[in-house]
Write a structure and sequence with these properties.
The chain folds into two domains: 189 residues, no CATH class; 116 residues. It is α+β, with helices and mostly antiparallel strands. Strands 1-2-3-4 form a four-stranded antiparallel sheet. A three-stranded antiparallel sheet has the order 5-6-7. It is built from ten helices and seven strands. Helices cover 57% and strands 13% of the residues. The radius of gyration is 23 Å and the shape is flat.
């Protein structure tokens, strides 16, 4: 049980923009995810049409698009929110509410459309919420949904996290910082202990599933190792079962997921060797194929380890 502290406080503060590391990180993520959509589309076409020599060009296009999007988003942020964002916080025993008062939000709500490029959820700073989620002037979080916190006394900042991303970024005055940190720690104390026992969030599994389907599709065309189609189907199926099954099935499917790419690639090399290595761009194709197979091996290993930790925690509870 969390400690019962009689606490209610509300305050207003100007959220910084330029010296806000989390906000810059979110801009990098948003630009990176947006550029990766185009890159993987071009890469898939290169593989499907066996135009392996065009793979570096696709990478350059993706990198250029990333740089362009990051510069554009940064300029928009600095022009509209360079002076920060006036924000109000309300903290009580149930949770925390964040309200942004920037008039620019209502005038530039179309900026919220930029968030379609990002896979992030509610984890925006107040200034970030103004820029990337303009339709939401108010966001809130209950303490039961917070699994851990990160603090920075230099910036008088508290990051509330749900395990894999920031739910809210809280700023206070230097005078109130220690008291607010003490209260927040008391409310998420139980959650911090339980966070190690939680499995992947639903959004995280959706994200990994999309990559499994995308990378599986990219393995179907013939590549130098010649990972044959039946093994591609098995790999994708085992990946889906690994992500969406419960113990003990999860551990079984995760072991199979680690084994199938190794067996399939070994069988392909034994039967055909490295094919088409004299073809222009073959070295790029084999690097991509190794990366794709490595993703599935990593996914199986990470899910197996996570499942084992959860199983041990349950045994200790018993």
């Amino acid at each position: 049980m969390s400690k019962k502290i009689d606490f209610y406080k509300e305050w207003e503060i100007n959220i910084p923009t330029i010296n806000n590391p989390l906000l810059w990180y979110q801009l990098v993520v948003m630009a990176g995810v947006g550029a990766s959509y185009v890159f993987f589309l071009l890469l898939g076409l290169n593989i499907y049409e066996r135009q392996w020599h065009d793979i570096p060009d696709s990478f350059v296009v993706g990198l250029t698009l990333f740089a362009g999007m990051f510069i554009a988003f940064s300029l928009i942020m600095l022009i509209f929110f360079g002076r920060g964002s006036q924000t109000k916080y309300i903290v009580n025993d149930e949770g925390i509410v964040q309200q942004t008062f920037s008039g620019k939000i209502k005038k530039f709500r179309w900026l919220g459309l930029l968030s379609i490029f990002s896979n992030t959820g509610a984890g925006y700073t107040a200034a970030g919420a103004s820029l990337l989620s303009g339709s939401r002037d108010i966001i809130s979080a209950e303490w039961k949904d917070i699994s851990r916190i990160e603090i920075s006394s230099i910036r008088n900042e508290i990051e509330l996290k749900d395990g894999w991303h920031t739910v809210m970024q809280v700023f206070t005055s230097p005078e109130e910082y220690d008291r607010v940190v003490e209260f927040v720690r008391s409310k998420v104390e139980v959650s911090e202990e339980e966070s190690e026992k939680k499995s992947r969030t639903f959004a995280n599994r959706i994200f990994l599933t999309l990559f499994a389907l995308l990378f599986g599709f990219m393995l179907f065309p013939r590549l130098p190792i010649h990972y044959i189609a039946p093994f591609v189907l098995l790999t994708v199926v085992f990946a889906l079962f690994t992500l969406w099954s419960d113990d003990p099935k999860k551990r079984i499917f995760s072991l199979l997921l680690m084994a199938v790419p190794v067996i399939g690639s070994g069988l392909g090399l034994y039967m055909d060797g490295l094919s088409d290595m004299d073809k222009s761009g073959a070295i790029y194709a084999i690097c991509i194929e190794i990366f794709l197979l490595g993703y599935f091996v990593w996914l199986g290993w990470s899910e197996f380890m996570q499942s084992s930790i959860l199983s041990k925690n349950k045994e200790l509870e018993i």
